[in-house]
Amino acid sequence: MTKKGPSNFDEERLAQLLLGGLDGDALAYHAFLKELSARLRAFFRKRLSRLPDEVEDLVQEALLAIHNQRRTYDASLPLTAWVHAIAKYKLVDLMRRRAAKEGLTDPLDDAAEILAGSDSEATEARRDLDKLLEQLPDRLRLPIVKTKLEGLTVAETARATGMSESAVKVGVHRGLKALAALIRDER
Amino acid sequence: MRTDDLVKLLATGAEPVERHAVGHRYAIAITLGMGASALLMLNLLGLRPDLAVAVRLAMFWVKLGFVAGLAWASLLATLRLSRPGVRLKWVPVALVAPVLVIWAIAGVALAGADPTLRPALIFGATWKSCPWLIAMLSIPVFFAAFWAMHGLAPTRLALAGAAAGLLSGTVGALVYSLHCPELDAPFLGTWYLLGMLIPALTGLALGPRLLRW
After folding, report:
1. Predicted ipTM?
2. Class of domain A119-186
3. A8-101 in CATH: which number?
């Protein structure tokens, strides 16, 4: 399903969801990321028409980047510009690596389009994030697995792993950054 | 992992995020970097002995103003280039303005000076060491600023590296100006500027390699 229709209303609603997420509202944040992944998919699919297999991997890479860098979002500025800059950065990064093989001629300077399309039909990602996750050392992997996959609280994770609560929080943060680094090096 | 699962993973247990994280990061970096730079200056070079006299001269404050103006503008550039989608807007103007002002003062000083004295205004007594000492004092700030930016999300890497490099150069020059005996605008507009550009160009070259995320 692909629907069109950019509007300020959409952008404002998405920005509110993100701001809720930044304040620790996991439900709002989940809604934000879910909707964002559909927008990113439409954006990348249009620009990677010659590399359809890369689309879902890039969606995941961009989602992880947006999550890891969410503290750089400035609420006084348009969400569109922030998301577009990150999506474009990841797209250019991908194209640069593939530049030797194929050229991309579609223009990328179209910030307004980043939230314009929506595509909720995910294809299979070729890269398996679960496998990459397994490569992380325990002090980074366990906090992610316990708090994010098993849904334990930070305190419960600290008890289960024998780590301190701050080590668990730091582990999640650094672990997701390390995951992004693994993705980058893998290409 | 399916994308929906990744979305769920990222959202589950997401902790509240500190709102002023970007500014805090640079506050830490500049404080530590400037402290280390000041220690280097005090141990290797020392304060200028006549500092108490110099602070009464207008040119001493013009010199500090020139360097501080550049430091402020390069900090703004660094902050903006650390966040995706934030434009530089008028910051390049703020970067050029202090240089134009010091060059204008230098032009007046040179025009009014006896031709035989002009080389002394430009070269002073320390032109050979000045740019290198500024670059040397900027090194701790350079590492600190790159550390700060590396944890953020610059999307124009060469430009971001140059801004962080220039920031470190201006802080290095600020520290150096407490040692340096030179006060003539032609000297400042040449050798100070050169000293601050060394780390800026280093940052320009290293940014694309060191700042990727």
Report:
1. 0.88
2. mainly alpha
3. 1.10.1740.10
Q: Determine whether the interchain pair A89/B155 forms a contact, defined as Cβ–Cβ distance below 8 Å.
A: yes
Domain range list for chain A:
8-101, 119-186
Interface A-B: count of C-beta contacts within 8 A: 124
CA distance A103 to B124: 54
The C-alpha atoms of residue A82 and residue A87 are separated, in whole angstroms, by: 9
DSSP state at residue A164? -
Two tokens at A41? 């998919």
Beta bridge partners of A2: A119
How far off is chain A from B197, nearest CA to CA, in Å?
Answer: 27
Q: What is the pLDDT of residues A86-119, one digit of tens each?
A: 999 999 988 887 775 555 555 556 666 777 778 8
pLDDT value at residue A4: 47
Q: Residue B210: its chain A contacts at CB < 8 A?
A: none
CB contacts, 8 Å: B4 with chain A: 34, 37, 122
CA distance B202 to B213: 19
Chain B CA closest to residue A63: B7
